[in-house]
Amino acid sequence: MKHIFLIVAILFLSISCKQRELPVIFNKVDESSEIAKQQNHEIERMKFKLIQSKYLDMNAVFKPFENDLAYFSEKEYQNLLPYIIEKDIPSIQESVSNGILSYEKIVLFYLYRIRKFESSNDLVLHSIISLNPNIVAEARTKDKNKPKDIKYTLYGLPILLKDNINTIGMPTTAGAFALKENSTTDDAFIVKKLKDNGALILGKANLSEWAYYFCDGCPLGYSAVGGQTLNPYGRKLFETGGSSSGSGVSVAANYAVAAVGTETSGSILSPSSKNSVVGLKPTIGLLSRTGIVPISSTLDTPGPMTKSVIDNAIFLAAMTGVDNEDVTTLNVDVTVDYIKDLKSATIKGRRLGVIKDLMSDSIYKKNVDLLQKAGAVIVDFEPLKLQLDGFLTLLNIDMKYDLPKYLSACADKNLKIKSIEDIIQINLKDSLQRAPYGQQLFEGIVQDSTTIAELEVIKSNLNATGKQFFNEPMDSLNLDAVLSINNYHAGFAAVAKYPCLAVPMGYEKSGEPISLTFIAKPFQEQKLLQMGYAFEQLSKVRKQPKNYK
User: Fold this and answer.
1) DSSP string, 179-203
2) How confident is the model at residue 15, as a pLDDT?
3) Given this model, what pLDDT does residue 19 score?
4) If DSSP codes are grouped into helix, strand and coil, which group holds residue 380?
């Protein structure tokens, strides 16, 4: 009996002696000198007016984790780091299966890491808008109920969502002051799918406000709620890409296992490329848009943003499903296995279309040569000179009608805003803080008088133009995919509704990341992922941002 009391006493002492870490405070700083310096930047959009959010209090965001993080030390963080940082999903899950990691430890690791960098004035990236206050408890539950076969699943792993995707327990703001109180919503369909597949929602990532269809020529990655997202490969030097800026930055900086972005035209491809992560813009209709703040029901789609192609395949599979409320998904083949045969994929024999003008880019040419040496059949061509007439009109009229539908059906019922006009008026009450770069695109939406009948003609013509741009070389040259750079041909892929996969292919002399983008015909995501995986294994160029290791 004495031995039992002794053991209990020792356990009590070990617990009580565990040192409580000092709290970390997020301080607002005078950024006037930083902003003055930015006015010398050669890129007009990088001449910031604001960097810190005027509305976000990160101390409040981290308040729910105060006690848990008080007993999570720097030493424990460093011990876990080799098993999490830059590791793909199968590797992390293997460490969980081996007892090296638990889902609770993984969650605490990411919370600690986000706080560590976001509380530093010299390293803060402003890529996080909110965190799930219940995630530590949810992780403990995942640990208790862990299934046997987890290697190729998202089970128990924390992911981030772009903050235009509805999620129970967190606001969905689209970065906008007008949606700051959009707090009580159901989960978006893709969020339900992710949870059904065991994923943990860590929080919401910053974005270009209203998915970058709000102000004209304003900085990528800026939102009134989240502030100015910064690129970890060059803070205040390189653009973040947009509009899924926070998703790309957070994945690059290892703030979560992966993140969801959304794209209308380039909004996954651009930030993925600028932040050296893998981004898939799926075929329109593969993934549901229900519960996502819209620009265009014609062109919008969510998509996975990850550090590796295998993670992208796992993530895509976890979001796919038929949503009766989004009729574009009704014919989705849910039996496609995006992970099977991925590791045995080869680029040998694949016919890849190379755009002649892009061969002047030395990094593009180097990677084309690499693919050719690996057995790919390289076919160069000159694309048709086509224009996307009416593209902005399509976005204007779709958003004019689609956003009110979201506000009516999917937003917090206490929100009083019902239209684009309402949002404009709210912002005018304090434009310096709510719309410092103006709201020219929203004003353009209101002024656009295009009728629905006229819109249908524009949609049809644009879709035909996009298909013609890709089908002419794809069909005549029998191509598996067209190779582009970053989001260079995102507009044509958007209106054609074709899928694209951006995979890191190197870094400019300045250190700025650049990606190779594979574009294929509709619902060929499996083929894209296989080609992307084979290329990734050949190139292996992705590297961590040096200040975020």
Assistant:
1) GTT----PPPHHHHHHHHTT-EEEE
2) 46
3) 80
4) strand
What DSSP line would sit under 49-112, residue for residue? Answer: S--S-SS--HHHHHGGGHHHHHT--HHHHHHHHHHHTT--HHHHHHHHHTTS--HHHHHHHHHH
**How many whole angstroms separate alpha carbon 87 and alpha carbon 84?**
5
Copy the structure tokens of residue 97: 């299966």
Q: Which amino acid is at 356?
A: K
φ, ψ (nearest 5 deg) of residue 9? -65, -40
Angle at 35 between CA 256 and CA 434, to 5 degrees: 70
Q: CB-based contacts of 163: which residues, under 8 Å, 6+ apart? A: 129, 130, 171, 172, 173, 174, 175, 204, 205, 206, 207, 223, 225, 226, 246
Catalytic residue among 267, 270, 272, 484: 267
Is residue 244 part of the annotated active site? The answer reads no
Span 38-58, pLDDT tens digits:
999 999 999 999 999 999 999
Phi-psi category of residue 213: left, alpha or beta, with phi > 0 → left and psi -120 to 50 → alpha:
beta
Active-site residue, selected from the candidate residues 87, 105, 142, 162: 162
Catalytic residue among 53, 208, 223, 243: 243
334-372 burial, b for 16+ CB within 10 Å, e for fewer? eeeebbeebeebebeebebbbbeebeebebbeebbebbe
- In this predicted structure, the answer to whether residue 531 has a pLDDT above a threshold of 90 is yes
Q: Using pLDDT thresholds of 50, 70 and 90, give the confidence band for residue 18.
A: low
DSSP string, 38-52: HTT-SSGGG--S--S
- With a cut of 50, say whether residue 452 has pLDDT above it: yes
Indicate whether 486 pLDDT > 80. Answer: yes
Question: What is the per-residue pLDDT for 3?
Answer: 53
Establish whether 243 is a catalytic residue. yes
pLDDT band at 22 (very low <50, low <70, confident <90, very high): confident
- Cα 530 from Cα 528, distance rounded (Å): 5
According to DSSP, the residues that pair with 228 across neighbouring strands are 222
pLDDT computed for residue 21 by the predictor: 82
Q: pLDDT-based confidence at 17, cuts 50/70/90?
A: low
Buried b (16+ CB within 10 A) or exposed e, 123-149: bbbbbbbbbbeebbebbeebeeebeee
CB 279 within 8 A of CB 302: no
| DSSP conformation letters of 212-232 | H-SSSSPPTTEETTTEE---T
**201: nearest Cα among 175, 163, 151:** 163
Ordered domains of the chain (ranges, CATH): 56-539 (3.90.1300.10)
What are residue 334's phi and psi, to 5 degrees?
Answer: -80, 0
C-beta separation of 315 from 258 below 8 A: yes
**Is 193 an annotated catalytic residue?**
no
Q: Which one, of 325, 289, 304, 262, lies nearest residue 190 by Cα?
A: 289
What single letter denotes the amino acid at residue 497?
A: K
Q: Assign 23 a pLDDT band (cuts: 50, 70, 90).
A: confident
